[in-house]
Amino acid sequence: MTSPMTVTPPAAGFIGPVKRSVTIAGHATSISLEPVFWHVLEAAAARRALPLNALIAQIDALRIVAEDPPNLASALRSWILSDIQAITSDTHSQQG
C-alpha cells in the first residue's frame, strides 16, 4: 500500500498578484500575475533570447486569434503551464 503524497505550500509562500506595465505593439498595458509566473516568464524569455515584452507580445498575438480569447493574464498562465509541460516532456524523453 502506498502512502498519500503530502501537499506543501510553495517555498516562497503564497503571494498574490503583482501588477506590471508592459508595452505590446507600442501600447502600454498592465498585467497582474503572481511573482512565480513573472519569474517563469522571465526565464522563458531568456531561454529564447527575447526581451520579456517581446515574449508577452508573441503570446498575446496567439491569444488574439484564438476562437474564444481569454484575458491576457489567463493566456500567459496557460502558456507558462504548457511551456513547462513541454520542457518536462522533452527532458523525460531525452532521459528514456
Automatic annotation (TrEMBL):
Residues 17-82 form the Ribbon-helix-helix domain. InterPro entries: RHH_dom, RHH_sf. Pfam families: RHH_4 (PF13467). It comes from the Bacteria. This is Ribbon-helix-helix domain-containing protein. It comes from Sphingomonas glacialis.
